[in-house]
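Second opinion, please. Please look over this fold, written as tokens:

===
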Amino acid sequence: MGGIADVAAGRLSADELSKNFDDMYPALGESKALIEASRCYFCYDAPCMEACPTGIDIPNFIRKIQTGNYRGSALDILSENIMGGACARVCPTEILCEEVCVRQTQEGKPVTIGKLQRFATDWLMASKEQPFERAELSGKTVAVVGAGPAGLSAAHRLSMLGHDVEIFEALPKSGGLNEYGIAAYKLPHGIAQEEVDFILGIGGITVHHNKALGRDISLSELHEKFDAVFIGTGLGAVRALGFENENIKGVFNAVDYIAKLRQSEDKTDLEIGRKVVVIGGGNTAIDMAVQAKRLGAEDVTLVYRRAPEDMSATHHEQDYAKLNGVTIKHFAKPVELLEQDGQVTGVRFEYTAKGANGALEGTGETFDLMANMVFKAIGQVFIPDPATNSTVSLEIQDGRIVVDENGATSVPGIYAGGDCVYGGEDLTVAAVQDGKVAAHAIDKVLR
């Protein structure tokens, strides 16, 4: 264990890695898109539309595909969800619009709404057209903190409504999780930045990169300088396992590694172990485990402390991981990181079980999994200090910002949305909707 052969970069050739990190699903060609669109019943009270967090008129955009009006279809989508291209690829349609599709309830085979949405939005992106225009300028300026899905959505809608926007982003690139946190095979080929460029193409939006709230700018400063502020910073910290030796060599935060992977040109520079253990049960854990296999790891095991149905990753995601050779073990929690000479050699787990009251309990029985690399993916948390440690202090509940139905915080003129708000769904599509709703609320106040 721990030898150079056990953890190495370039386990696979550049060609193999290119194939492994290509699109996870092929795009629909025109003929297949037309056939799939013809399966839609165009329901009057469409349950799919009700299930869409952004309220896209799904039957209408599908009908326009059927009639060959691809531009109109894309506009129907993007008018409600400006990140419709990315969401078509990463949105869990299997538990949203497609789950309630009448075809699904009748036949067990829904209309593939996500693929049709991708077909329409890809068509418009390929045309290089900028279909959105700004309203008459208001003379108002809004600060947006975070250039992720919530912030970009808010900025685009505010610009459409005639306001000037300045975005303050802590990282070197815009896009948030779409650029740094989603599995590379879900958003390959620079799609995330292409979508960012499309959003900023409307004009009236200035982005300041490497500007972090609490480090380079303060909330009180923004509140004083701008007519309104929108916070869409997402979750900035990773939960720890709580072990004293958690920082030993070979133990990584999955989100940090995925960000590095996303920014790698050809993936040949990324070290991966022969034996990999991923701890967690969400989409990040699944993404990390699958990508470890695609980087060339021989043995990847994902361990979750509860039952399969308790995982925040959908059954679709779990099945996809298994198809990629990932072993998933349930009802086990980490109790110790095993090490030798400062290098992780494995993880000791304790079997768990549900007690009489439904609470999770340890059984006292343990097992060891050998590993050259261990990835922590047990959740992220919001860092509230920048939003509370200034002359302007926002109400926080359970570690997240409290907002009303319009995204307004406890401080007049400051709004928030996305993963950083209390009660959020931690979905890209939900973050986009939060940004859009808050933008309209801000516009109403500023006017």
